[in-house]
C-alpha cells in the first residue's frame, strides 16, 4: 500500500530528503514550500510527485508529515496542526537541528489524531536552498530519532524504512542529550567560526592585506561561517540551554590558554595541542558522522598558465569525478599545490594512479 508523505520546506534538507523518498516504490511524495518558485522547481525537477499551494492542504492529503523548515517555522507548523480538523491520524516528524523546543511544542498537542517522532539527519552544508539539495547528502551520516508524543516503536521503524534510501545510520536519542551533543559538535562551533571571521575583519582595518593571506587553515576552520545566518540564528537561540554553558567553558579555557602562552608554559601548551590532535585524528572521517566522506589527494603543480586545466583534463579522460578542488598555494615562480576531493576511495586511488603516470607528485591524506 502506498504511503503519502508531505515534505514541508523544500530547501537543502527537505529537497534532499524528498529525492530519497522518491526512490521508494511505495511512497507518494507531496511537497509544500512557502516560496512558489521553489515548489515549481521541485515539481518540474522531480523532487516530488505533487506540489500543493498550502500547508493545510498537504497535511490533509498526507499519512506522514515531514517538517523541513527552519526551527521557528517547524514550531509554528506544529502549533497550526493542533488546530486542524483532521479526518485520520497523522505521523509527524521533522529535520530541525534542535530537538527540545520542537518536542516540547508537539507535547502540547491536544489533537488526538497527531503523533510525533523528532528527526535530525546529521549532515548538511553551508549552502542553502533546493539548488544545493542532493540525494547522497546523508549517505553514511547519522540520522537521529527522538520519540515524542503518542509515538510508538512502530512509528520509528516506519520512518526508518521509508528513509532507507538515505543510506544513513539510525540512532535513537533523548531530546536533552541530542541538544547537548549537537550543541558541542555542531552549534557552538558556528559561533567560534563566526567570531574568528570577525577577528580577521577587525585586523583587516589595521593591515588591509590580511584578507589576502587567508589560506587553507583559516578557510578550513571558518567554512561554516558562510552558512545561512537566519537558520543559525534560530538554532543558537533555540539551543541556548546548551550554548550558554559551552560559552562559559570556552571563555575559561581561553583564559587558561592565555596563561600558558603568557607564562611561556611550553609543556602545558604542548600537552594541550597534542591531546587535541589525538582526539581530532580519531574522528570518523571516512565512513560516518558529520564530516562528509571525502577522499583527498594533494598534487604539486607548476605556477604556469593551464596547470590546473591539465590536471582536470587527465582526470576527466579517466572518467573520475572530482567533488571539490582547492588551490592551496600558488606563489609566483614556485610550485603550488592542489587539494582534490573525491567521493569514493576507488576514485582517490584511480586519481593517484593516473596523475603519477603523467609525471605528477601526488600525496594522499590517510
Ligand atoms: N543546513 C544544514 O546543514 C542542516 C542539516 C540538518 C538539519 N538542518 C535543519 O533543516 C531545516 C531546514 O534547513 P535547510 O538547510 O534545508 O534550509 P534551507 O534554507 O535550505 O531551506 C528551508 C526551506 O524552507 C522554506 N520555508 C521556510 N519557512 C517555511 C514555512 N513556514 N513553510 C514552508 N516552507 C518554509 C524555505 O522557503 C526554504 O525553501 C532547519 O530546521 C535546519 O535546522 C539543516
Ligand atoms: O557541513 C556543514 O556545513 C554543516 O554545518 C552540517 C551540520 C553540522 O554542523 O555538522 C549543520 C547542522 C546540522 O543540523 C547538521 C549538520
TrEMBL record:
Pfam families: ACT, PDH_C, PDH_N. Residues 1-291 form the Prephenate/arogenate dehydrogenase domain. Gene3D superfamilies: 3.30.70.260, 6-phosphogluconate dehydrogenase C-terminal like domain, NAD(P)-binding Rossmann-like Domain. Coiled coil: none annotated. It is an enzyme of class 1 (oxidoreductase). Residues 296-366 form the ACT domain. It comes from the Bacteria. Keywords: Amino-acid biosynthesis, Aromatic amino acid biosynthesis, NAD, Oxidoreductase, Tyrosine biosynthesis. CDD domains: ACT_PDH-BS. InterPro entries: 6-PGluconate_DH-like_C_sf, ACT-like_dom_sf, ACT_dom, NAD(P)-bd_dom_sf, PDH_C, PDH_N, Preph/Arog_dehydrog, Prephen_DH. Transmembrane segments: none annotated. GO terms for molecular function: NAD+ binding; prephenate dehydrogenase (NAD+) activity; prephenate dehydrogenase (NADP+) activity. One of its GO terms (biological process) is tyrosine biosynthetic process. It catalyses: prephenate + NAD(+) = 3-(4-hydroxyphenyl)pyruvate + CO2 + NADH. Its EC number is 1.3.1.12. Pathway: Amino-acid biosynthesis; L-tyrosine biosynthesis; (4-hydroxyphenyl)pyruvate from prephenate (NAD(+) route): step 1/1. Belongs to the prephenate/arogenate dehydrogenase family. This is Prephenate dehydrogenase. It comes from Pontibacillus litoralis JSM 072002. The lineage of its organism: Bacteria, Bacillati, Bacillota, Bacilli, Bacillales.
Amino acid at each position: 500500500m502506498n504511503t503519502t508523505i508531505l515534505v514541508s520546506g523544500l530547501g537543502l534538507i527537505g529537497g534532499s530528503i524528498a529525492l530519497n523518498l522518491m526512490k521508494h516504490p511505495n511512497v507518494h511524495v507531496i511537497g509544500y514550500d512557502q516560496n512558489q518558485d521553489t515548489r515549481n522547481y521541485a515539481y518540474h525537477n522531480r523532487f516530488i510527485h505533487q506540489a500543493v499551494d498550502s500547508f493545510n492542504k498537504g497535511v490533509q492529503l498526507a499519512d506522514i508529515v515531514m517538517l523541513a523548515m527552519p526551527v521557528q517555522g517547524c514550531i509554528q507548523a506544529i502549533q497550526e496542526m493542533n488546530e486542524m480538523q483532521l479526518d485520520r491520524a497523522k505521523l509527524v516528524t521533522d529535520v530541525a537541528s534542535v530537538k527540545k523546543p520542537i518536542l516540547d511544542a508537539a507535547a502540547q498537542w491536544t489533537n488526538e489524531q497527531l503523533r510525533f517522532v523528532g528527526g535530525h539527519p546529521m549532515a548538511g552544508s553551508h549552502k542553502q536552498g533546493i539548488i544545493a539539495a542532493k540525494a547522497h547528502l546523508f549517505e553514511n551520516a547519522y540520522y537521529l530519532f527522538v520519540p515524542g508524543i503518542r509515538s510508538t516503536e512502530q512509528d520509528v521503524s516506519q520512518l526508518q524504512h521509508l528513509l532507507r534510501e538515505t543510506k544513513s545510520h539510525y540512532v535513537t536519542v533523548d531530546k536533552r542529550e541530542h541538544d547537548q551533543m549537537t550543541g558541542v559538535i555542531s552549534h557552538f562551533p558556528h559561533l567560534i567560526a563566526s567570531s574568528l571571521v570577525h577577528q580577521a575583519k577587525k585586523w583587516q582595518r589595521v593591515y588591509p592585506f590580511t584578507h589576502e593571506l587567508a589560506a587553507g587553515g583559516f578557510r578550513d576552520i571558518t567554512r561554516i561561517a558562510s552558512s545561512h545566518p537566519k537558520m543559525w540564528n534560530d538554532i543558537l537561540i533555540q539551543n541556548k540551554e546548551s550554548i550558554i554553558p559551552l560559552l562559559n567553558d570556552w571563555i575559561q579555557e581561553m583564559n587558561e590558554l592565555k596563561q600558558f602562552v603568557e607564562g611561556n608554559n611550553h609543556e602545558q601548551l604542548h600537552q594541550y595541542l597534542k591531546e587535541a590532535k589525538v582526539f581530532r585524528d580519531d574522528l570518523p572521517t571516512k565512513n560516518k558522522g558529520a564530516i562528509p566522506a571525502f577522499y583527498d589527494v594533494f598534487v604539486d603543480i607548476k605556477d604556469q598558465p593551464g596547470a590546473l586545466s591539465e590536471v582536470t583534463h587527465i582526470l576527466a579522460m579517466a572518467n573520475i569525478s572530482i567533488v571539490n578542488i582547492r588551490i592551496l598555494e600558488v606563489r609566483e615562480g614556485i610550485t603550488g599545490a592542489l587539494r582534490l576531493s573525491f567521493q569514493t576511495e576507488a576514485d582517490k586511488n584511480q586519481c593517484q594512479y593516473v596523475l603519477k603516470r603523467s609525471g605528477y607528485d601526488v600525496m594522499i591524506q590517510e
